[in-house]
Structures are given as structure tokens and as C-alpha cells.
Amino acid sequence: MLPAEAAAFSLTSEGKAAEVERLIAPTVADLGFEIVRVQLGGGQRRPTLQVMIERPDGSLAIEDCVAVSHAVSALLEVEDPIDGAYELEVSSPGIDRPLTRAKDFLRWAGYEAKVELKLPIEGRRRIKGRLIGLEGTDVILAEAAGQPQVRLPLSAIGKAKLVLTDDLLAAGQAGEPDA
């Protein structure tokens, strides 16, 4: 069980995307999915609203993306939270997925991750290493064998994602539930 402060941590969206996430989250949850990330990008001409989802067990099928896309599209059509035209993309987080929730740092322990901090800690903004897990509200990374582990407060993390490595690919090909 995660501490309340850690469980509240989420980097799933910001700005206008956070507004959209708040709007669509109940519908996505009612369909049996969790939001991994909502992101609005792609420039001014034709922005893309990307909604990454998964089931609580981490699984996802193309039919799931279609169902969520239809439901979210209908809701966004009515509520119209985004000015102008945009593309809606509902997808899986993929194998080298973003780590956006506290539970992601536990679930993906043992795999390599890249973390970008909001502000430098000890002169560093980017840290890459094997994800050890989460202790309280600190993410623990091992940068290299023989080096001390790095502790990063969840609140200091701006972005984090898994690194595509042979270990991660092998786990994905073996059909392991967490890869």
C-alpha cells in the first residue's frame, strides 16, 4: 500500500490536458481503464490530444482503445474543452512507457528509467538508472554498480519513463504481465 502522499502523486497531465483529464476520467474509469497520461501537443495547426490508457492489470487490446475513443470523443463533442480542431489518439503507453503515477515506480522496479527533474538536485536535472522502487515519497534509482543509490522526491520529478533495453524487450516478448 502506498502512503497517501505518494498515492496522490500524478504526472498524468498538465495545463489544458489536465482539464481534459478531469473531464474524461470518470468515463474512462467506468469503462474499466486507468489513465496513464493525457497530453495535448503537435503544434498549432492540428494539435493531437493523446490519451494513454490501460486496464488495472496493465493489459490493453486494440478494441479497448476503440471503445474508449468512442466514449471520450462523444463526451468531448458535448463539452468542447479544446478550442479549434484536434486529433484524438487513444493508445497504450507502450513498452518504454512514461512513469506518471507513484504505483508505476513500484510496478516497474528492476527496469532502467530516465528521470527529468523540475529543478536541479545537486546540479543535475537528468538521472538514468535501474529503478529500485519507491520508499515513502522517494523514488530510488541505482545509477551504476558500486555507486550509492539516488533518492528523488516524487514532488521533484517533472518527467520519467522506462528506457527500452534488452531486459524490457525480453520481458515484453515473454508476455510478462508487467512488460
Automatic annotation (TrEMBL):
From the Swiss-Prot or TrEMBL record, state where the protein is found. Cytoplasm
Domain Ribosome maturation factor RimP N-terminal positions:
23-96
Q: Which GO terms describe its cellular component?
A: cytosol
The record's principal subcellular location, in a coarse class, is cytoplasm
**PANTHER family documented for this protein:** RIBOSOME MATURATION FACTOR RIMP (PTHR33867)
**Alphabetic keyword roster:** Cytoplasm, Ribosome biogenesis
Task: List the SUPFAM superfamilies.
Answer: YhbC-like, C-terminal domain, YhbC-like, N-terminal domain
Q: Per the database record, which ranges form the Ribosome maturation factor RimP C-terminal domain? A: 99-165
Q: Which domain of life is it from?
A: Bacteria
Q: Name the protein family.
A: Belongs to the RimP family.
One biological-process term from Gene Ontology? translation
Give the protein's function: Required for maturation of 30S ribosomal subunits.
Name this protein carries in UniProt: Ribosome maturation factor RimP
| Pfam families reported in the protein's UniProt record | DUF150_C, RimP_N
Q: What organism is this sequence from?
A: Tistlia consotensis USBA 355
Report the InterPro entries cross-referenced here: Ribosome_maturation_RimP (IPR003728), RimP_C (IPR028998), RimP_C_sf (IPR036847), RimP_N (IPR028989), RimP_N_sf (IPR035956)
